[in-house]
Amino acid sequence: MAAFRSGLLVLTAPLPALAPRLAPLLSSAAGLVNHTLYVHLQPGLTLAGPAQPHPGPVPATFEVLDVLSLLYAGADRHRGLDVRVLLSNVQAKSALAPAPVGSVQNLAHPPEVVLTDFQARDGSQYNPVKQQLERYATSCYSCCPQLSSVLLHPDHGTGELPAEPLDVPLPATIRPASPVARSPKQPVPGYQRGALGGTFDRLHNAHKVLLSVACVLAQERLVVGVADKDLLKSKVLPELLQPYADRVEHLSEFLVDVKPSLTFDIVPLVDPYGPAGSDALLEFLVVSEETYRGGMAVNRFRLEHVTPGLEELVLYQIQLLKDQSHKENEEDKVSSSSFRQRMLGTLLRPPNKRPELPPCLYVLGLTGISASGKSSVARRLRSLGAYVIDSDQLGHRAYAPGGSAYQPVVEAFGTDILHKDGVINRKVLGSRVFGNKKQLKVLTDIVWPVITKLALEEMDRAVAQGKTVCVLDAAVLLEAGWQDMVHEVWTVVIPETEAVRRIMERDGLSEAAAHSRLQSQMSGQQLVGQSHVVLSTLWAPHITQQQVERAWDLLQKRLPETLRARD
Question: What is its main location (predicted)?
Fold first, then answer.
């Protein structure tokens, strides 16, 4: 059966019986739906009778929250699938009037197929049951006009689905605040207003658990703080973070899909407390295991620093989702930082077409901030078969007596920049232009065109040697405009703090001088903004080697057919 872009999975089994079925059900659904899978919980729903089935409220219990967590944990095995558990019919215990259940809800991606775990009596794709399923789906949600339906049991199962609940308690989504045990059937209290915060980069299933619990607890308004500015500096690979506006857009779409009855206030989070530290109307705060201390700090801030003192927020501490496929340098939890690490070496945007370059040569521009490890990456690429052009060496040739830039530089800056033997003293020359934009432009206007010409000559040598991939290693690749003569820009990034440490150790500079050097260059963020591939030397050398080899292997697969044939 052809894959559908979006689907709706209606789960009808009682929750204790549903838990052991979730993994095979999600696997079956993932075989049919390739983009967005909505999940609708309606335990006890029957599709076999003559009467039109209608949605009803599902009391929010701790067992429901545990099933939500289990669903998203299972969905993490199918990362290409965007799973969203719909919560309009899940109602917490509250003094407020419950939200009405029964109106048709619009979804961002109208389902093209509706799936269910409901079993027809004869175990077949029984048409009356499928017709009832389609009627039920369209009475709840906006679906595509040509809606298909599939009974996942047994024809589309990955194996026999357990019919009875396993005598194993579900892992608790919410860590108890005290050693007092809670019952799975215990109702979850509802609150008018609550909050949570996070980076929400590349919205993933662990985020969705936090957000879903918050949506169940909140009855009127949910404040969501999205980390921005200084709070992003300590993140792993901050250069690869999605822009704030993109993160907000994806977050907003998810929240409106799962519980449209709530009012969502999505705000920038620029300090550790955010709105939770000062909003007197908030009643609860959802945190994860690793941010629980931050939640306690918010409560201390509310009590000690806000006048008049605010009441403490009720803290809901959510268990982290474990990442079963994490690698040695990645966290063992489902994490955006691990996702960003997995982007290293992959193609981030389509390559440039460069018809003016030799047709039998594919050129990479390699760049990075000072001390990023760019040269070590260049050496690794050379060992894999690339022809490497070192722009620093070309610069030395350009400055050397008899070089094309020698006389124009001496005329522009005077003979006092020369050693006694007539060679240009690059340290003296560098001190003349450092921090002086006008003088620097005079120098680069002379030297960069010469290096461009020398680089093109080197590319011809690469072709003569039978090389198919050429690397132009240049710290000023983008400043000099040399990205216009490469097919792809590859950037090596490290945190600024690590770059400062390396510069101080390598060059013997003070911390202030190291910072000054970095501030005179384009930032890693600016470089990545124009890059096709990003690498990092932050971790152990063998991790860097793995990244480079992966990037090289992926490059070989996208080389033009004519170049692959030469290889």
Answer: cytoplasm
Q: What does DSSP say about strands 362-368 and 284-288: parallel, antiparallel, or unpaired?
A: unpaired
- What is the Cα–Cα distance from 167 to 101, expressed in whole angstroms? 32
At CA 530, angle to CA 340 and CA 246, rounded to 5?
55
Helix residue ranges, H only, 166-233: 205-217
User: Residue 164's pLDDT is what?
Assistant: 46
The token duo for 157 is: 């199962």
Angle at 263 between CA 258 and CA 264, to 5 degrees: 75
- The token pair that represents 30 in the structure block: 């993932």
Close Cβ partners of 251 (under 8 Å, ≥ 6 residues apart): 200, 203, 211, 224, 226, 266
Residue 110: how many CB atoms within 10 A of its CB?
A: 17
What's the mean pLDDT in 151-159? Answer: 58
Q: Are 399 and 447 in contact (CB under 8 A)?
A: yes
pTM across the whole model? 0.91
**Which of 75-84, 135-144, 318-327 is predicted with the least confidence, judged by mean pLDDT?**
318-327
Give the CA distances from residue 228 to residues 167, 231, 243, 555, in Å, rounded to whole numbers and listed in that order: 45, 6, 9, 33
Is 33 strand, coil or helix? Answer: strand
Three-class secondary structure of residue 306 per DSSP: coil
Q: What is the pLDDT of residues 507-541, one digit of tens each?
A: 999 999 999 999 999 999 999 999 999 999 999 99
Which residue from 104, 64, 73, 90 is spatially nearest to 325, judged by alpha carbons?
73
444 against 97, higher pLDDT:
444
What are the strands, taking DSSP E only, across 27-99? 33-41, 58-59, 82-86, 90-91
- Cβ distance 39 to 74 under 8 Å? no
In contact, 203 and 250? CB cutoff 8 Å: yes
Is residue 190 a contact partner of residue 93, using CB atoms and an 8 Å limit? yes
State how far the Cα of 254 lies from the Cα of 105, in Å rounded to an integer: 14
Between CA 409 and CA 413 the distance in angstroms is: 6
Distance separating alpha carbons of residues 258 and 41, to the nearest angstrom: 12
Tally the residues of the chain.
Answer: 567
3-state DSSP assignment of residue 280 = coil
pLDDT digits over 348-406, tens only? Answer: 999 999 999 999 999 999 999 999 999 999 999 999 999 999 999 999 999 999 999 99
What does the alpha-carbon distance between residue 73 and residue 334 come to, in Å, rounded to a whole number? 9
Rg (CA), the chain: 30
> What Cα–Cα distance (Å) separates residue 501 from each residue in 238, 240, 371, 504, 512?
18, 22, 9, 5, 11
Counting runs of H as helices and runs of E as strands, what totals does the chain give?
18, 18
Peptide bond into 308 cis (omega under 30): yes
Q: For residue 365, what pLDDT is reported?
A: 98
